[in-house]
Each structure stands twice: as structure tokens, then as C-alpha cells.
Amino acid sequence: SQELDLVYFVKAVKNMIVMAEENRDYLSQLDSDVGDGDHGINLSIGFRDVEKKLENFDIETENISSLFKSVGMSLLGKVGGASGPLYGSFFLAFGSTLNNKKVITTDEFITAFGAAVDKVQFRGKAELNDKTMIDVLIPAKEYLFAHKESDFKDTLVEVVKLMKERSIEIKPLVAKKGRAMRLGDRAIGHFDPGAESSWRILECFLLALN
Ligand code: ADP
Ligand code: MG
Ligand code: MG
């Protein structure tokens, strides 16, 4: 397995800040088809707070756990709605499994990612095919665990591809969790906004690799 350092993770988080701005209108548009039209706005509010806190982040004294604790607290504290607490818990769980390290192995990344996905499922209680972010996060977790021995970059390329495919595959489903649930059959044919933001977050980890 390869190593990932704090500089890498700061780069990944900075990619998320840019991603949230660039996709703000797109993700809110998707959410206006099936929910209350704020998913992009929610992420943008959260990651603007992440950006603000990153200004005072001292790479010498901080570590990967404290970085993701800060990200998680921003999303948990600043973002209303379902996705704030879910993504907030995702990053808090991701960071807390890493025991204040400044460098981790890709194996440790995979373990932390697994714990983060489990936390989202624990909090949101969504199962596969409920048409939520869980439908792309679970296959990502499974793929990562099955490819621990492979080149990490190759694996992340495949994970992002798989998540994009899953996000399209769940379009014909009826939502069983979140606001889209209230639409019943009218959600059929639409994207789940959280699935579309989840693969973009994973892509931020991929693009931070050299
Ligand atoms: P809200 O629906 O409260 O306005 P957002 O629009 O920001 O919050 O986020 C909506 C997304 O949150 C959905 O597209 C879905 O992927 C995700 N979501 C909602 N409820 C759950 C849940 N119980 N478990 C997992 N994901 C969920
Ligand atoms: Mg919404
Ligand atoms: Mg909302």
C-alpha cells in the first residue's frame, strides 16, 4: 500500500471547496426536481466555512484527524437539512479513525472510508435502493475493500466511475428516504442530488493524487 500525507488531504479538501462552488447551481437544480432545491446551496455554505477555517490551519501542528474533524464540524454545524449532518458525520468518522496521524497508508484510508460510510448509514438509516447517497457510497466502500492490493490511483479512478454509473442506475427508482420520498412515483427518472455530490467528493480525493 502507498502513503498519503497531510498535504495530500489538504489538497483534497481544497478540491472539495472548489467543487462545491462549481456545482452549486447544478446540485440545487437537481434538488429542485425532487426536493427543496437547496442541496448545492447547502454544500456551498458548508464548504465556504471549511475554507474560512482552513486559513488558520497550521500544517506543522495539525494532522489528518484534526483536518477532517474541522471539515465535519463545519458541515454538521453550518448546513441545515439532511446532507449537512450526514456529510458532517462522514468526515468526523473518517478523521476519528486516523488517530491524529500526519501520514497514513492507503489501507488506512480504506478503513477510514468504510467507517465513514457506516456512520452515514447508521445516522440516515438508508438501505441500498432507497435512492440516496448510500447507493453510491456502499459500492464505493465495497470496491475499495476488494482492491486493497491494487494501485490506489487506478482504484480511485474505478471507484469514481462506479459511483457515477450507480448514480445513473438509481434514476428509475422511487425514493424511500429524505424529501424525495414525498414525491412517490414523480421521483422516477430524476437523479438523487446526494448521489451526484458523493461521487464528486470522491473525485476530489482522486484529483489530489499526483
Ligand atoms: P434536504 O433534503 O434536507 O434539503 P439536501 O437537499 O442537502 O437536504 O440533501 C438531500 C440528499 O440527502 C438526498 O439527495 C440524499 O442523497 C441524502 N439523504 C437524505 N436523507 C437521507 C438518509 N436518510 N440517508 C442517506 N442519505 C440521505
Ligand atoms: Mg434539499
Ligand atoms: Mg433543505
What does this structure look like?
By secondary structure, the chain is mostly helical. It has one domain (3-207): Alpha Horseshoe (Serine Threonine Protein Phosphatase 5, Tetratricopeptide repeat). It is built from 9 helices and 2 strands; from the N terminus they run βαααααβαααα. The chain has a two-stranded antiparallel ribbon. Helix 2 (24-34) packs antiparallel against helix 9 (193-207) and helix 7 packs antiparallel against helix 8. The model has no long low-confidence stretch (mean pLDDT 97). Bound molecules: adenosine-5'-diphosphate and magnesium ion (2 copies). Adenosine-5'-diphosphate binds at residues 31, 35-36, 38-39, 42, 81-83, 86, 124-126, 132-134, 177-179, 192-195. The site of one magnesium ion has 3 residues, from loops.
